[in-house]
Amino acid sequence: MRFIADFIGALREAGLPISPAESLDAIKAIELLGLESRATAKSVLALTLVKRHQDQATYHELFELYFAHIENAHANGDNTLESLEATDKQQSQSQNQESAEAKDGSAAIASSELGLSLLQQQDMALAIAQAAKAENLSSIVLFTQKNHFAYKIMQRLGGDELNTEIRAIVDSPEQKRLQEQLTQARARLLEQVKDYVEQQYLIFARHKGAKFREDHLQQAKLSQLEHTDYALMQRLVQKAARKLATQHSRRRLTRKRGQLDVRKTIAANAAFDGALFHTRWKATRVERPKIMVICDVSGSVSRVARFLLLFLYSLQDVIPKVRSYVFASDMIEVTTLLQQEEIESALEKIMQCWGGLSTDYGQALMNFQEQALTHIDQKTTIIMLGDARNNQGDGRPDIWQKVYRQSKRVLWLNPEQRNSWDTGDSIMAQYSPWCSSVEPCRSLNDIEGIFSRILKYA
Questions:
Q1: Of 206, 61, 211, 200, nearest to 137 (Cα)?
Q2: Which InterPro entries match (predicted)?
Q3: Residue 454 and residue 458: Cα distance in Å, rounded?
Q4: pLDDT tens-digit profile of 283-299?
Q5: Beta bridge partners of 281
Q6: Nearest-angstrom CA–CA distance, 77 and 86
Q7: Could you tell me if residue 241 is inside a domain?
Protein backbone atom coordinates (compact mmCIF):
# COMPACT_ATOMS: atom_id res chain seq x y z
CA MET A 1 0.00 0.00 0.00
CA ARG A 2 2.91 2.33 -0.63
CA PHE A 3 0.79 4.16 -3.21
CA ILE A 4 -1.75 5.27 -0.58
CA ALA A 5 0.93 5.80 2.07
CA ASP A 6 2.72 8.29 -0.21
CA PHE A 7 -0.54 10.17 -0.75
CA ILE A 8 -1.07 10.36 3.03
CA GLY A 9 2.48 11.67 3.35
CA ALA A 10 1.70 14.41 0.82
CA LEU A 11 -1.38 15.42 2.83
CA ARG A 12 0.70 15.62 6.00
CA GLU A 13 3.25 17.81 4.24
CA ALA A 14 0.37 20.09 3.25
CA GLY A 15 -0.53 20.53 6.92
CA LEU A 16 -3.37 18.03 7.41
CA PRO A 17 -3.23 16.39 10.87
CA ILE A 18 -3.43 12.64 10.16
CA SER A 19 -2.73 10.11 12.88
CA PRO A 20 -1.27 6.61 12.30
CA ALA A 21 -4.64 5.10 13.21
CA GLU A 22 -6.41 7.20 10.58
CA SER A 23 -3.78 6.19 8.01
CA LEU A 24 -4.44 2.50 8.73
CA ASP A 25 -8.20 3.06 8.44
CA ALA A 26 -7.73 4.67 5.03
CA ILE A 27 -5.52 1.85 3.76
CA LYS A 28 -7.95 -0.82 4.99
CA ALA A 29 -10.85 0.98 3.34
CA ILE A 30 -9.04 1.09 -0.01
CA GLU A 31 -8.10 -2.59 0.34
CA LEU A 32 -11.82 -3.40 0.65
CA LEU A 33 -13.17 -1.05 -2.01
CA GLY A 34 -10.23 -0.77 -4.41
CA LEU A 35 -9.46 2.11 -6.74
CA GLU A 36 -11.74 1.13 -9.63
CA SER A 37 -14.11 4.00 -8.85
CA ARG A 38 -12.21 7.25 -8.51
CA ALA A 39 -15.21 9.01 -6.96
CA THR A 40 -15.62 6.28 -4.33
CA ALA A 41 -11.92 6.31 -3.48
CA LYS A 42 -11.99 10.10 -3.11
CA SER A 43 -14.99 10.01 -0.77
CA VAL A 44 -13.63 7.16 1.36
CA LEU A 45 -10.21 8.76 1.80
CA ALA A 46 -11.83 12.11 2.62
CA LEU A 47 -13.97 10.50 5.33
CA THR A 48 -10.98 8.81 6.95
CA LEU A 49 -8.29 11.49 6.53
CA VAL A 50 -9.91 14.96 6.56
CA LYS A 51 -11.21 16.24 9.90
CA ARG A 52 -11.25 20.02 9.44
CA HIS A 53 -13.42 21.99 7.04
CA GLN A 54 -10.52 24.29 6.10
CA ASP A 55 -8.54 21.27 4.84
CA GLN A 56 -11.16 20.22 2.29
CA ALA A 57 -9.82 22.41 -0.53
CA THR A 58 -6.25 21.20 -0.02
CA TYR A 59 -7.39 17.57 0.01
CA HIS A 60 -9.38 17.89 -3.22
CA GLU A 61 -6.52 19.65 -4.99
CA LEU A 62 -3.94 17.05 -3.98
CA PHE A 63 -6.25 14.14 -4.77
CA GLU A 64 -6.82 15.35 -8.33
CA LEU A 65 -3.09 15.83 -8.86
CA TYR A 66 -2.04 12.55 -7.26
CA PHE A 67 -4.65 10.29 -8.82
CA ALA A 68 -4.60 11.84 -12.29
CA HIS A 69 -2.82 8.87 -13.87
CA ILE A 70 -5.33 6.32 -12.51
CA GLU A 71 -7.62 7.13 -15.43
CA ASN A 72 -4.83 6.18 -17.82
CA ALA A 73 -4.34 2.91 -15.99
CA HIS A 74 -8.10 2.31 -16.05
CA ALA A 75 -8.23 2.89 -19.81
CA ASN A 76 -5.59 0.20 -20.28
CA GLY A 77 -7.49 -2.33 -18.20
CA ASP A 78 -5.38 -1.91 -15.05
CA ASN A 79 -8.33 -1.52 -12.71
CA THR A 80 -6.97 -2.96 -9.49
CA LEU A 81 -4.68 -1.65 -6.82
CA GLU A 82 -2.47 -4.69 -7.41
CA SER A 83 -1.87 -3.62 -11.00
CA LEU A 84 -0.92 -0.12 -9.84
CA GLU A 85 1.71 -1.58 -7.53
CA ALA A 86 3.04 -4.27 -9.90
CA THR A 87 6.78 -4.24 -10.46
CA ASP A 88 8.44 -2.71 -13.49
CA LYS A 89 9.93 -6.05 -14.41
CA GLN A 90 6.62 -7.89 -14.63
CA GLN A 91 5.02 -5.17 -16.73
CA SER A 92 7.92 -4.73 -19.14
CA GLN A 93 8.24 -8.49 -19.71
CA SER A 94 4.57 -8.96 -20.60
CA GLN A 95 4.44 -5.84 -22.76
CA ASN A 96 7.61 -6.71 -24.67
CA GLN A 97 6.38 -10.24 -25.35
CA GLU A 98 3.05 -8.98 -26.73
CA SER A 99 4.67 -6.35 -28.93
CA ALA A 100 7.23 -8.80 -30.29
CA GLU A 101 4.48 -11.20 -31.32
CA ALA A 102 2.40 -8.42 -32.86
CA LYS A 103 5.14 -6.62 -34.81
CA ASP A 104 7.84 -8.97 -35.88
CA GLY A 105 9.48 -6.49 -38.23
CA SER A 106 9.95 -3.74 -35.71
CA ALA A 107 11.12 -6.17 -33.02
CA ALA A 108 13.82 -7.48 -35.31
CA ILE A 109 15.14 -3.94 -35.94
CA ALA A 110 14.78 -2.22 -32.54
CA SER A 111 17.42 -3.58 -30.19
CA SER A 112 16.40 -1.85 -26.93
CA GLU A 113 13.33 -2.73 -24.86
CA LEU A 114 12.36 0.91 -24.49
CA GLY A 115 12.70 1.50 -28.23
CA LEU A 116 10.49 -1.50 -28.89
CA SER A 117 7.81 -0.18 -26.54
CA LEU A 118 7.91 3.29 -28.09
CA LEU A 119 7.64 1.96 -31.66
CA GLN A 120 4.54 0.01 -30.66
CA GLN A 121 3.10 3.19 -29.09
CA GLN A 122 2.54 1.50 -25.78
CA ASP A 123 1.14 3.63 -22.96
CA MET A 124 4.08 4.51 -20.71
CA ALA A 125 2.09 6.14 -17.88
CA LEU A 126 2.23 3.15 -15.55
CA ALA A 127 5.91 2.49 -16.31
CA ILE A 128 6.74 6.13 -15.59
CA ALA A 129 4.86 6.02 -12.28
CA GLN A 130 6.68 2.85 -11.25
CA ALA A 131 10.07 4.25 -12.25
CA ALA A 132 9.32 7.43 -10.28
CA LYS A 133 8.42 5.37 -7.24
CA ALA A 134 11.68 3.43 -7.54
CA GLU A 135 13.60 6.74 -7.70
CA ASN A 136 11.72 8.06 -4.64
CA LEU A 137 10.32 11.04 -6.51
CA SER A 138 8.13 11.87 -3.51
CA SER A 139 11.27 13.13 -1.74
CA ILE A 140 11.59 16.06 -4.17
CA VAL A 141 11.91 19.43 -2.38
CA LEU A 142 13.39 22.04 -4.74
CA PHE A 143 12.40 22.98 -8.27
CA THR A 144 16.06 22.57 -9.28
CA GLN A 145 15.66 18.83 -8.68
CA LYS A 146 13.07 18.37 -11.43
CA ASN A 147 15.58 17.81 -14.24
CA HIS A 148 17.58 15.43 -12.06
CA PHE A 149 14.56 13.23 -11.37
CA ALA A 150 13.46 13.34 -15.02
CA TYR A 151 16.93 12.11 -16.02
CA LYS A 152 16.90 9.31 -13.41
CA ILE A 153 13.43 8.15 -14.48
CA MET A 154 14.51 8.05 -18.14
CA GLN A 155 17.52 5.99 -17.15
CA ARG A 156 15.37 3.52 -15.22
CA LEU A 157 13.01 3.19 -18.17
CA GLY A 158 15.97 2.22 -20.36
CA GLY A 159 17.09 5.58 -21.68
CA ASP A 160 20.80 4.67 -21.84
CA GLU A 161 20.17 1.66 -24.10
CA LEU A 162 17.83 3.73 -26.26
CA ASN A 163 20.43 6.51 -26.61
CA THR A 164 23.07 3.98 -27.62
CA GLU A 165 20.77 2.60 -30.29
CA ILE A 166 19.98 6.07 -31.63
CA ARG A 167 23.65 7.06 -31.79
CA ALA A 168 24.80 3.81 -33.44
CA ILE A 169 26.36 3.95 -36.94
CA VAL A 170 23.85 2.70 -39.52
CA ASP A 171 24.31 1.42 -43.07
CA SER A 172 20.82 1.36 -44.56
CA PRO A 173 18.02 3.91 -45.13
CA GLU A 174 15.64 1.68 -43.13
CA GLN A 175 17.86 1.88 -40.04
CA LYS A 176 18.23 5.65 -40.51
CA ARG A 177 14.43 6.05 -40.56
CA LEU A 178 14.21 3.87 -37.48
CA GLN A 179 16.64 6.12 -35.63
CA GLU A 180 14.61 9.19 -36.59
CA GLN A 181 11.44 7.52 -35.32
CA LEU A 182 13.13 6.59 -32.06
CA THR A 183 14.48 10.15 -31.64
CA GLN A 184 11.00 11.60 -32.00
CA ALA A 185 9.50 8.99 -29.69
CA ARG A 186 12.21 9.65 -27.09
CA ALA A 187 11.42 13.38 -27.18
CA ARG A 188 7.71 12.66 -26.60
CA LEU A 189 8.54 10.30 -23.75
CA LEU A 190 10.87 12.84 -22.12
CA GLU A 191 8.11 15.45 -22.29
CA GLN A 192 5.71 12.98 -20.66
CA VAL A 193 8.25 12.24 -17.92
CA LYS A 194 8.79 15.95 -17.28
CA ASP A 195 5.04 16.50 -17.04
CA TYR A 196 4.80 13.70 -14.49
CA VAL A 197 7.71 15.09 -12.47
CA GLU A 198 6.08 18.53 -12.52
CA GLN A 199 2.84 17.02 -11.28
CA GLN A 200 4.61 15.23 -8.43
CA TYR A 201 6.54 18.38 -7.60
CA LEU A 202 3.26 20.24 -7.16
CA ILE A 203 2.02 17.46 -4.88
CA PHE A 204 5.05 16.94 -2.67
CA ALA A 205 7.43 19.88 -2.96
CA ARG A 206 5.21 22.94 -2.90
CA HIS A 207 4.23 22.50 0.74
CA LYS A 208 7.68 21.23 1.68
CA GLY A 209 9.15 24.41 0.26
CA ALA A 210 6.70 26.56 2.22
CA LYS A 211 7.46 24.62 5.40
CA PHE A 212 11.19 24.95 4.75
CA ARG A 213 10.77 28.72 4.42
CA GLU A 214 8.69 28.90 7.60
CA ASP A 215 11.29 26.90 9.55
CA HIS A 216 13.98 29.24 8.25
CA LEU A 217 12.05 32.37 9.26
CA GLN A 218 11.40 31.03 12.75
CA GLN A 219 15.14 30.81 13.32
CA ALA A 220 16.18 33.86 11.30
CA LYS A 221 17.36 37.09 12.92
CA LEU A 222 14.36 39.39 13.15
CA SER A 223 16.63 42.42 12.73
CA GLN A 224 17.64 41.21 9.27
CA LEU A 225 14.22 40.34 7.87
CA GLU A 226 13.28 41.80 4.51
CA HIS A 227 10.00 43.69 4.14
CA THR A 228 8.86 40.98 1.72
CA ASP A 229 8.94 38.50 4.63
CA TYR A 230 6.82 40.62 6.98
CA ALA A 231 3.43 39.22 5.96
CA LEU A 232 4.52 35.60 6.37
CA MET A 233 6.34 36.36 9.62
CA GLN A 234 3.23 38.03 11.05
CA ARG A 235 1.24 34.86 10.31
CA LEU A 236 3.93 32.73 11.95
CA VAL A 237 3.98 34.98 15.02
CA GLN A 238 0.20 34.78 15.40
CA LYS A 239 0.27 31.01 14.85
CA ALA A 240 2.92 30.55 17.55
CA ALA A 241 0.97 32.82 19.91
CA ARG A 242 -2.25 30.86 19.35
CA LYS A 243 -0.45 27.63 20.13
CA LEU A 244 0.93 29.09 23.34
CA ALA A 245 -2.45 30.59 24.26
CA THR A 246 -4.12 27.20 23.84
CA GLN A 247 -1.65 25.64 26.25
CA HIS A 248 -2.27 28.33 28.88
CA SER A 249 -5.88 29.32 28.20
CA ARG A 250 -7.23 28.27 31.60
CA ARG A 251 -6.35 29.39 35.08
CA ARG A 252 -4.40 26.34 36.03
CA LEU A 253 -4.51 24.65 39.42
CA THR A 254 -1.22 22.80 39.88
CA ARG A 255 -1.60 20.12 42.52
CA LYS A 256 1.45 19.19 44.59
CA ARG A 257 0.66 15.53 45.26
CA GLY A 258 2.47 14.38 48.37
CA GLN A 259 1.63 17.51 50.43
CA LEU A 260 -1.55 16.69 52.29
CA ASP A 261 -3.72 19.61 53.40
CA VAL A 262 -4.59 18.35 56.89
CA ARG A 263 -7.08 21.08 57.76
CA LYS A 264 -9.13 20.65 54.58
CA THR A 265 -8.95 16.84 54.81
CA ILE A 266 -10.35 16.79 58.37
CA ALA A 267 -13.10 19.21 57.41
CA ALA A 268 -14.06 17.14 54.36
CA ASN A 269 -14.39 13.96 56.47
CA ALA A 270 -16.06 15.38 59.56
CA ALA A 271 -19.27 13.49 58.78
CA PHE A 272 -17.51 10.10 58.70
CA ASP A 273 -16.34 9.89 62.35
CA GLY A 274 -12.73 10.53 61.41
CA ALA A 275 -12.53 7.97 58.60
CA LEU A 276 -10.61 9.53 55.72
CA PHE A 277 -12.86 8.89 52.75
CA HIS A 278 -11.77 12.08 51.00
CA THR A 279 -8.27 13.53 50.93
CA ARG A 280 -7.42 17.11 50.13
CA TRP A 281 -4.04 18.12 48.71
CA LYS A 282 -2.25 21.43 48.82
CA ALA A 283 -2.42 23.33 45.58
CA THR A 284 -0.86 26.40 44.01
CA ARG A 285 -2.91 28.58 41.71
CA VAL A 286 -0.99 29.93 38.75
CA GLU A 287 -2.21 33.46 38.11
CA ARG A 288 -2.20 35.35 34.85
CA PRO A 289 0.75 37.75 34.84
CA LYS A 290 0.56 41.53 34.98
CA ILE A 291 3.04 42.81 32.40
CA MET A 292 4.65 46.08 31.42
CA VAL A 293 6.62 45.88 28.19
CA ILE A 294 9.08 48.57 27.13
CA CYS A 295 10.38 48.48 23.56
CA ASP A 296 13.26 50.37 22.05
CA VAL A 297 12.03 51.22 18.54
CA SER A 298 15.17 52.98 17.38
CA GLY A 299 16.60 52.01 14.02
CA SER A 300 18.64 49.07 15.29
CA VAL A 301 15.83 47.37 17.25
CA SER A 302 12.56 48.42 15.58
CA ARG A 303 12.03 45.20 13.60
CA VAL A 304 12.39 42.99 16.66
CA ALA A 305 10.08 45.30 18.63
CA ARG A 306 7.41 44.99 15.94
CA PHE A 307 7.20 41.22 16.24
CA LEU A 308 7.57 41.17 20.03
CA LEU A 309 4.53 43.46 20.38
CA LEU A 310 2.61 41.45 17.79
CA PHE A 311 3.32 38.24 19.71
CA LEU A 312 2.40 39.80 23.04
CA TYR A 313 -0.92 41.20 21.82
CA SER A 314 -1.77 37.88 20.18
CA LEU A 315 -1.78 36.44 23.72
CA GLN A 316 -4.64 38.62 25.00
CA ASP A 317 -6.64 35.60 26.17
CA VAL A 318 -3.94 34.59 28.65
CA ILE A 319 -2.14 37.93 29.24
CA PRO A 320 -4.92 40.55 29.37
CA LYS A 321 -3.15 42.95 31.77
CA VAL A 322 -0.53 44.48 29.50
CA ARG A 323 0.74 48.04 29.38
CA SER A 324 3.06 48.89 26.50
CA TYR A 325 5.63 51.65 26.12
CA VAL A 326 7.90 52.50 23.20
CA PHE A 327 10.82 54.88 22.99
CA ALA A 328 13.74 56.10 20.99
CA SER A 329 14.45 59.05 23.24
CA ASP A 330 11.07 60.09 24.75
CA MET A 331 8.98 57.32 26.29
CA ILE A 332 5.38 56.99 24.99
CA GLU A 333 2.63 54.67 26.25
CA VAL A 334 0.90 52.95 23.33
CA THR A 335 -1.43 50.62 25.27
CA THR A 336 -4.62 52.35 24.11
CA LEU A 337 -3.49 52.50 20.49
CA LEU A 338 -2.73 48.76 20.42
CA GLN A 339 -6.06 47.92 22.07
CA GLN A 340 -8.31 50.12 19.95
CA GLU A 341 -6.90 49.49 16.48
CA GLU A 342 -6.04 46.40 14.49
CA ILE A 343 -2.65 45.24 15.68
CA GLU A 344 -0.95 45.45 12.25
CA SER A 345 -2.25 48.98 11.67
CA ALA A 346 -1.24 50.08 15.16
CA LEU A 347 2.27 48.71 14.72
CA GLU A 348 2.65 50.59 11.44
CA LYS A 349 1.67 53.86 13.14
CA ILE A 350 4.09 53.23 16.01
CA MET A 351 6.99 52.57 13.68
CA GLN A 352 6.18 55.58 11.51
CA CYS A 353 5.89 58.00 14.46
CA TRP A 354 8.63 56.80 16.80
CA GLY A 355 10.70 54.19 14.97
CA GLY A 356 14.11 54.75 13.47
CA LEU A 357 15.25 57.66 15.69
CA SER A 358 18.47 57.80 17.70
CA THR A 359 18.39 56.33 21.21
CA ASP A 360 18.51 58.03 24.61
CA TYR A 361 17.93 55.50 27.41
CA GLY A 362 18.42 58.13 30.12
CA GLN A 363 15.63 60.36 28.81
CA ALA A 364 13.36 57.36 28.20
CA LEU A 365 13.79 56.03 31.74
CA MET A 366 13.09 59.45 33.25
CA ASN A 367 9.83 59.53 31.28
CA PHE A 368 9.01 56.00 32.42
CA GLN A 369 9.63 56.96 36.06
CA GLU A 370 7.13 59.81 35.74
CA GLN A 371 4.48 57.81 33.87
CA ALA A 372 4.59 54.29 35.29
CA LEU A 373 6.76 53.82 38.39
CA THR A 374 3.84 54.31 40.79
CA HIS A 375 1.87 51.56 38.99
CA ILE A 376 4.54 48.88 39.48
CA ASP A 377 4.01 46.42 42.33
CA GLN A 378 5.13 42.94 43.36
CA LYS A 379 2.75 41.33 40.85
CA THR A 380 4.27 43.16 37.88
CA THR A 381 6.64 41.62 35.36
CA ILE A 382 8.74 44.15 33.44
CA ILE A 383 9.97 43.22 29.95
CA MET A 384 12.52 45.50 28.35
CA LEU A 385 13.52 45.00 24.72
CA GLY A 386 16.63 46.97 23.83
CA ASP A 387 20.27 46.77 22.83
CA ALA A 388 21.39 49.20 25.61
CA ARG A 389 23.32 51.31 23.08
CA ASN A 390 22.99 54.84 24.42
CA ASN A 391 25.21 56.93 22.11
CA GLN A 392 27.63 57.69 24.98
CA GLY A 393 24.90 59.33 27.10
CA ASP A 394 23.89 58.86 30.75
CA GLY A 395 21.76 55.69 30.88
CA ARG A 396 20.27 56.44 34.36
CA PRO A 397 20.71 52.92 35.77
CA ASP A 398 19.53 54.30 39.14
CA ILE A 399 15.98 54.51 37.75
CA TRP A 400 16.22 50.93 36.46
CA GLN A 401 17.28 49.88 39.96
CA LYS A 402 14.05 51.36 41.35
CA VAL A 403 12.05 49.46 38.72
CA TYR A 404 13.76 46.23 39.73
CA ARG A 405 13.15 46.70 43.45
CA GLN A 406 9.43 47.52 43.05
CA SER A 407 8.51 44.76 40.55
CA LYS A 408 8.09 41.01 40.77
CA ARG A 409 10.80 40.44 38.17
CA VAL A 410 12.58 42.19 35.33
CA LEU A 411 13.46 40.57 32.00
CA TRP A 412 15.82 42.31 29.60
CA LEU A 413 15.72 41.01 26.03
CA ASN A 414 18.66 42.03 23.89
CA PRO A 415 18.46 41.52 20.10
CA GLU A 416 22.27 41.33 19.84
CA GLN A 417 24.41 38.28 20.49
CA ARG A 418 26.06 38.13 23.91
CA ASN A 419 29.59 38.81 22.69
CA SER A 420 28.39 42.19 21.34
CA TRP A 421 27.13 43.40 24.72
CA ASP A 422 29.28 46.10 26.38
CA THR A 423 31.13 46.82 23.14
CA GLY A 424 31.17 50.28 21.57
CA ASP A 425 28.43 52.43 23.12
CA SER A 426 26.61 49.49 24.76
CA ILE A 427 26.04 49.94 28.53
CA MET A 428 24.45 46.55 29.15
CA ALA A 429 26.66 45.99 32.21
CA GLN A 430 25.03 48.99 33.95
CA TYR A 431 21.56 47.44 33.69
CA SER A 432 22.32 43.71 34.10
CA PRO A 433 22.66 43.77 37.94
CA TRP A 434 19.10 45.09 38.15
CA CYS A 435 17.52 42.38 36.01
CA SER A 436 16.08 39.02 37.04
CA SER A 437 17.16 37.64 33.68
CA VAL A 438 19.04 38.98 30.68
CA GLU A 439 18.56 37.00 27.47
CA PRO A 440 19.30 37.35 23.77
CA CYS A 441 16.12 37.72 21.71
CA ARG A 442 16.92 37.47 18.04
CA SER A 443 14.33 35.15 16.48
CA LEU A 444 10.72 34.03 16.69
CA ASN A 445 11.85 30.86 18.45
CA ASP A 446 13.48 33.02 21.15
CA ILE A 447 10.29 35.06 21.64
CA GLU A 448 8.13 31.93 21.87
CA GLY A 449 10.45 30.34 24.43
CA ILE A 450 10.56 33.48 26.57
CA PHE A 451 6.77 33.87 26.76
CA SER A 452 6.33 30.16 27.38
CA ARG A 453 8.47 30.51 30.50
CA ILE A 454 6.64 33.68 31.58
CA LEU A 455 3.28 31.90 31.42
CA LYS A 456 4.59 28.73 33.04
CA TYR A 457 6.14 30.44 36.05
CA ALA A 458 3.84 33.43 36.36
A1: 200
A2: UCP010256, Uncharacterised_CoxE, vWFA_dom_sf
A3: 6
A4: 655 555 688 999 999 87
A5: 260
A6: 14
A7: no
